[in-house]
Specification:
Largest sheet of chain A: 3 strands, mixed
Structural class of chain A: mainly alpha
Distance between the termini of chain A: 65 Å
Order of helices and strands of chain A: HHHHHHHHHHEEEHHHHHHHHHHH
Organism (chains A, B): Paenibacillus tyrfis
CATH class of one domain in chain A: Mainly Alpha
Number of strands of chain A: 3
Protein name (chains A, B): Metal-dependent carboxypeptidase
Number of helices of chain A: 21
CATH architecture of one domain in chain A: Orthogonal Bundle
Largest interface: A-B, 39 and 39 residues
Strand order of the largest sheet of chain A: 1-3-2
Helix content of chain A: 55-70%
Family (chains A, B): Belongs to the peptidase M32 family.
Oligomer: homodimer
Shape of chain A: globular
Pfam family, one (chains A, B): Peptidase_M32
Radius of gyration of chain A: 23 Å
Catalytic activity (chains A, B): Release of a C-terminal amino acid with broad specificity, except for -Pro
Amino acid sequence: MEAKLTDFKQYLKKMKSYEEAIGLIYWDMRTGAPKKGIAARSEVVGELSGELFKMSVSEEMGSFLDHFTSSGVQSELSDIDRRIVSECKKEYDRSKKIPPKLYQEYVVLTSQAESAWEDAKDQADFPGFQPYLEKIVDMNLQFIDLWGYEGHKYNTLLDAYEPGMTVEKLDQVFGALREQVVPLLSAIQESAHKPEIGFLKQTFDKDKQKKFSLYILEQMGYDFEAGRLDETVHPFATGLNPGDVRITTRYLLNDVNSALFGTIHEGGHALYEQNISMDLLGTPLCSGTSMGIHESQSRFWENMIGRSRPFWNRYFPELQKNYAGQFDKVGVEDFYRATNEVKPSLIRIEADELTYNLHIMVRYEIEKALFSGAVKVADLPEVWNEKYREYLGIVPSHNGEGVLQDVHWSAGMFGYFPSYALGNMYAAQIKRTLEQELGNVNELVREGNLIPIKAWLADKIYQYGKSQTPTEIITRVTGEELNPSYLVDYLRVKYSDIYKL
Amino acid sequence: MEAKLTDFKQYLKKMKSYEEAIGLIYWDMRTGAPKKGIAARSEVVGELSGELFKMSVSEEMGSFLDHFTSSGVQSELSDIDRRIVSECKKEYDRSKKIPPKLYQEYVVLTSQAESAWEDAKDQADFPGFQPYLEKIVDMNLQFIDLWGYEGHKYNTLLDAYEPGMTVEKLDQVFGALREQVVPLLSAIQESAHKPEIGFLKQTFDKDKQKKFSLYILEQMGYDFEAGRLDETVHPFATGLNPGDVRITTRYLLNDVNSALFGTIHEGGHALYEQNISMDLLGTPLCSGTSMGIHESQSRFWENMIGRSRPFWNRYFPELQKNYAGQFDKVGVEDFYRATNEVKPSLIRIEADELTYNLHIMVRYEIEKALFSGAVKVADLPEVWNEKYREYLGIVPSHNGEGVLQDVHWSAGMFGYFPSYALGNMYAAQIKRTLEQELGNVNELVREGNLIPIKAWLADKIYQYGKSQTPTEIITRVTGEELNPSYLVDYLRVKYSDIYKL
């Protein structure tokens, strides 16, 4: 038993090594790999990914799993080891159920679809992308049949990003959220107390932006001996191992906030990955537990800390110093309100904290309808525009800023979008418990005393990695399952104050 | 036949992919990987290297080689394919002849030896390193017996770095070189016309150093779309694939030349790797043919171009502009002479172009004697100091600046050192042909017209990668085998002029 377990863990460690190597190659490709080397480098990724996939579905893996899931043996395993086995088994079953030829076809399709999508988006040409998307949806429906499903077919897709999440649950939480957010948004739009935002849009030196971003990261407790900050077109965080969690941001010269909040957001993801217990190193549990919980951490730090009043009470003077002369005539309250401007917009990734949730609900409704068969791909532009009118009160002038704006569908990532809004809900719920357990959090933030907050999150969430499910984590930490009312309350209180409702 | 060849090449491409991934990981570790991630990253390297080694000695590889070296088949192969097979066969035989247990023992030994060496060097404590070195020499002697040898045992070690090189040949060329260099050095030391070098040692802004380094690289024809320049403690070049050849340099704030010539040196290595024919991509021939030929290119660009008078006639005004105010009172001739100061010194990596060869000869004589049994490890400090007195006229005051100065032996790299001096000889010989074929090279350099030089080298040498041996290359390009007289002539002319001998 011990020997077999050692062999199994050695096998998993090898898989993790491949994953780490692939992760580093991707980081490098995005941050500064010379472009003429990319074609050959992609083949390297192909080789390593192919090997990794083979290992995940090999006969050897199959025999390990048979052994460790057999009745006599399973019960002898430690909780962590049992979780490792079930994680591998889930992956194994998911992969084994797809015939290799079909999977290969899908890989080719999505890689072609991604470049077709880029062109289509540039030219606002939905018909140019439609056949790819139809085929991708079609193949995902085949996959769902092969994988099996309970209740709604879309549940199987959701489960890949947020284990255990269902349409039933999402309908409930998104419904409750929307019911409150839509009237709140109307009230905000009717408010006479709109923030001035002009001073956010001066020209800001890139080095100064970088310096301030690094400063805030350090304040959050981001460990620079276990990470680094680089520049990319699209910000991201990547946890190669807990001792090497890198983040990137993007500097817009005419916007003081874009790089900063991008950094804080990715920094939140990074705090999670940096603080996973070293006991989980080399196992499949050494990563965040789900997209939703991960996003809860990036959004907690970005919005609930970074866009909070106490945060700017503490850090606005530092910002003024950093951009000497540029904010002399701006008050901290003005800055705080500008930073939290709410305004319906067409592009998800530029949306504010409040309306962001509505962008997600549009996508959720559409994905759900696609996989129930209620909507056809051909109808998406119309459905999209109609939903934007209904949820946000505005309509795209062309499909490039509408249904074609996101990359996700071209890569077959259905079921991913809800994670973003789930992250907001988890974050607000966790924040409530944090306040109960840690005392006056606003006071800590006002003092720039962010480390106890990080430490609490590390203790309650980060250290566990994937050894607990999202539901287990949220229930253990907050005492109840996902409950949208915390986010609703948080948003109402915050924005009623800012817009004097 | 065709199908089997395709399979074989696929297999080799996979090996190259692993090599490329490992290469990137090393680059990253040296340029900026967060230190807390290094331990886990080293295990990733271990996994991938282990796989790569297994592939190189697998039964599958064995059966490919049996097939493609069998009499009926070999003759059907193209020249390139035959070379690919023989390259793999050489590696295969070399690895297969060492029992895995012995090799494993050696890996552990050298990794321990490297840290023992670091301590020993710091404390000038040869006895602390001696037992490791004894064991390493011992095991290399065992390897030589297993590999087999012709003539001198040391030939087998030389062959690993410079295929075909022998003690017989090295004795001849180093002898001829030494016979001329030693008296030339004496004459230089007695010359009354010593350059002033004080102005090289001002304080130089790092960003300006970087800017000038990048400018010169661009002048050399280094392709920035196929590479990048970073900063490390020890400069290096790494060719991941011909479209991604990265170099690093080190900035010393009190030395205008260190980073610059480091950059040009590594840039020379990089030009070689960037210009290997894409036809060789994914094969074991897609790299420089030997350490000696590689070093010929770094040294050609560093010394024969970069430290030449026409180069500074062209670029000294640019240097003056780059370091505004710092070289106003310095003439180009003064700068040229200072940059070529000759002075016996104790440390190889700080040596000038002329005495560098003597540092190498000391090491060559010692390695040769170690493997013939004429010298024992215990006697090395004494032998080392004696040779330095004889060749360079100076003696280390302690072993840290003497026999312990280089990392090579702790890593078991015997036979490597001669490559550096071979590089100088190859470079001078190739330069002669270049001048014959390209017309007035000095004139091109004086005009800053370096691209035709790069193009000629790419055409004559770089594109071939490892598809020709060093001897084939030098003979084809220059019409004769390695001949030290070109280096001797070059050094005599250059330094007689500088020192007015």
